[in-house]
Amino acid sequence: xxxxxxxxxxxxxxxxxxxxxxxxxxxxxxxxxxxxxxxxxxxxxxxxxxxxxxxxxxxxxxxxxxxxxxxxxxxxxxxxxxxxxxxxxxxxxxxxxxxxxxxxxxxxxxxxxxxxxxxxxxxxxxxxxxxxxxxxxxxxxxxxxxxxxxxxxxxxxxxxxxxxxxxxxxxxxxxxxxxxxxxxxxxxxxxxxxxxxxxxxxxxxxxxxxxxxxxxxxxxxxxxxxxxxxxxxxxxxxxxxxxxxxxxxxxxxxxxxxxxxxxxxxxxxxxxxxxxxxxxxxxxxxxxxxxxxxxxxxxxxxx
Length: 303
What we know:
mainly alpha; 11 helices
């Protein structure tokens, strides 16, 4: 897991606009530093930049009340587009890694399996070219430099009268209530869609905690550590669900002799999903009291 960006000098009574300026500039800089490795096409470089973009996107959304509306509208689209472009490459990396692991030990994968691997590798190259073109365009247009300059001017905004601690508590409580509601809905049916929504909510909660963990107290820091493990389990679950759909689609187009091989691979994925689902439910049981304690902690701090 990519380490969180640590911001020195954040204080509880610091005006939120000043904190937002410091945080957004630091997280944007972290993103820019990871672009060269991603451009090389390495799997690690793609993964690290994707995490950095997601972290920046969530910070950008988190501090929306502090940003000028024009700035938010001007830059939200390219942030989403970059996240999507990275996802196109990363999704192929995950699928290819899964397929190679599933077919380990086989004397020779069925032709349709080999064809799927070849197609995914070709799609990855195409997605990598599209990503490189997007990064080149953003650099030529000076988009990130423009945004960094906007962050420099945030401190003069009227919202600066609010304290960082007050802002952090409010955002933390919002994200916490959201993920708890998503889990309550997912627990009843545990569908791939509902569990994916939990994963998104949990991710937003983690990213909301990261920059403020020192000032939000030990209950919130304890929650963050468990939420990170929950995120990993939900990620394994999402990967298994995505792979199951891919295998079912490929199996439908395979010849009858090859379907048995596909069925064996599907059984492996089903088993992996069961393991991930049990782990996610177990971790959620551990999280319930941590959610409660963290919520109580941020609500009591407001009185």
